[in-house]
């Protein structure tokens, strides 16, 4: 089933944010414009920490750290309080002691975990994403799974269950005594059931991206190159569970020697091609960056269609990594999104916007 839907999306924006004991911030408050917000300051002034706080307030978790690492050094707790244009109030509380914990408060109601419907849709573009196609497959798997968690209710639970089941099987491979095949059987079955759900979700998502990616790339590059994306499953998707169970049973001895499970979606990949050839082998640096921009714009569109709500867009220091043509191409697609851009040079960003942008200056001496 496609993630694209037709109803007009609702539009919510972050109007203010207070950070207490979050990363480098002791107690700081910010107000934001509903369109473009440029967060400017020198290196180590807290730009990325502020962007991360917006992400945590919207989605409930960070993209680069465990919850306890978000709490300011030696502080017992951290808190984020956010006002939304729709009138909603959102808070996130992180505690270090007596045991690490996290809770959310939405319009006066407390939650221990956020469902997809209680999050705000967000698209993040940060420098490491420029390595998405050239880096290892774990980064591409994470890209798909993170997007699925935002667009497919229940996928986050399936993802966590798969990881736990895989960890249990790997632990048995390393430490079990006696008849290993018998001990592994229930874990093989459960892992295969969850794997089938993961692979089908990823395959459907990649098909949705493929539906829009070639056109976006042509619009951005003005070139005739055809860009494609495909999911590389180890087994036929329609019979994934039964085939995987058989592979797991047949590979017990080898898996035991390796100390890990060699088959399953945790070992698979997605591939981007240029005119049918693998991107890392044939594409130039500029072509790869254009393809990643197209992927990010596709992500915006797919997320907006699935959630029927306009996503927030967070751009962490990527303008300096793009040339003028690609900066213009990116800003042409930003007009309807609330956007947060971090930079050390506000002028570099401002020259690419025809509408007014709000500047949030950060000072090293005022955390």
Describe the structure.
- It is a single chain.
- The chain is of the alpha/beta class.
- It has two domains: 11-121 and 309-367, Rossmann fold (3-Layer(aba) Sandwich), CATH 3.40.50; 134-307, Up-down Bundle (Glutathione S-transferase Yfyf (Class Pi), Chain A, domain 2).
- It contains ten helices and 14 strands.
- The strands form three sheets. Strands 2-1-4-5-6-7 form a six-stranded antiparallel β-sheet, with helices on one face. Strands 8-12-13-3-14 form a five-stranded parallel β-sheet, with helices on both faces. It has a three-stranded antiparallel β-sheet with strand order 9-10-11.
- A hairpin with a 2-residue loop joins strand 10 (269-274) and strand 11.
- Helix 3 (155-175) packs across helix 4, helix 4 (180-221) crosses helix 5 (240-250) and helix 4 (180-221) packs across helix 8 (285-307).
- Residues 1-6 have low confidence and may be disordered.
Helix content: 40-55%
Strand order of the largest sheet: 2-1-4-5-6-7
Decide which structural class fits the backbone: alpha/beta
User: How many DSSP H or I helices?
Assistant: 10
Q: Would you tell me which CATH topology of the largest domain applies? A: Glutathione S-transferase Yfyf (Class Pi), Chain A, domain 2
Instruction: Tell me the Rg in angstroms.
Output: 22 Å
How far the N terminus sits from the C terminus, by CA atoms, comes to 46 Å
The H-and-E topology, N to C, reads as EEEHEEEEEHHHEHHEEHHEHEHE
Mean pLDDT: 91
Largest sheet: 6 strands, antiparallel
CATH superfamily of the largest domain: RecF/RecN/SMC, N-terminal domain
Q: Low-confidence segments, ≥5 residues, pLDDT <50? A: 1-6
Q: State the CATH architecture of the largest domain.
A: Up-down Bundle
* Level-1 CATH class name of the largest domain: Mainly Alpha
């Amino acid at each position: 089933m496609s993630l694209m839907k037709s109803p007009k999306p609702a539009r919510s924006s972050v109007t203010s944010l207070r950070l207490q004991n979050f990363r480098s911030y002791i107690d700081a408050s910010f107000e934001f414009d509903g369109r473009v917000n440029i967060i400017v300051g020198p290196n180590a002034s807290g730009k990325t920490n502020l962007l991360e706080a917006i992400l945590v307030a919207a989605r409930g978790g960070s993209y680069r750290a465990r919850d306890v690492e978000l709490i300011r050094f030696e502080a017992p707790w951290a808190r984020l309080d956010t006002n939304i244009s729709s009138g909603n109030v959102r808070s996130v509380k992180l505690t270090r002691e007596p045991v690490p914990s996290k809770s959310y408060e939405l319009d006066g109601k407390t939650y221990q975990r956020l469902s997809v419907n209680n999050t705000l849709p967000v698209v993040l573009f940060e420098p490491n994403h420029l390595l998405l196609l050239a880096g290892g497959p774990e980064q591409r798997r994470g890209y798909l799974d993170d997007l699925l968690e935002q667009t497919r209710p229940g996928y986050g639970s399936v993802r966590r269950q798969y990881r736990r089941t895989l960890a249990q099987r790997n632990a048995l491979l390393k430490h079990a005594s006696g008849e290993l095949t018998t001990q592994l059987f229930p874990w093989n079955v459960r892992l295969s059931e969850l794997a089938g759900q993961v692979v089908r979700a990823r395959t459907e998502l990649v098909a949705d991206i493929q539906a829009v990616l070639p056109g976006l790339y042509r619009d951005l590059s003005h070139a005739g190159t055809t860009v494609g994306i495909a999911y590389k499953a180890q087994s036929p998707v329609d019979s994934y569970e039964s085939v995987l169970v058989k592979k797991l049973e047949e590979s017990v001895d080898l898996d035991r020697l390796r100390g890990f499970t060699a088959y399953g979606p945790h070992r698979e990949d997605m591939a981007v091609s240029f005119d049918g050839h693998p991107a890392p082998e044939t594409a130039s640096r500029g072509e790869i960056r254009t393809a990643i921009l197209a992927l990010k714009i596709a992500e915006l569109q797919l997320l907006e269609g699935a959630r029927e709500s306009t996503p927030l867009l967070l751009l962490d220091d990527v303008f300096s990594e793009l040339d003028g043509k690609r900066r213009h191409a990116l800003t042409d697609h930003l007009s309807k999104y609330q956007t947060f851009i971090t930079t050390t040079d506000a002028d570099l960003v401002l020259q690419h916007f025809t509408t007014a942008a709000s500047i949030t200056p950060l000072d090293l001496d005022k955390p």
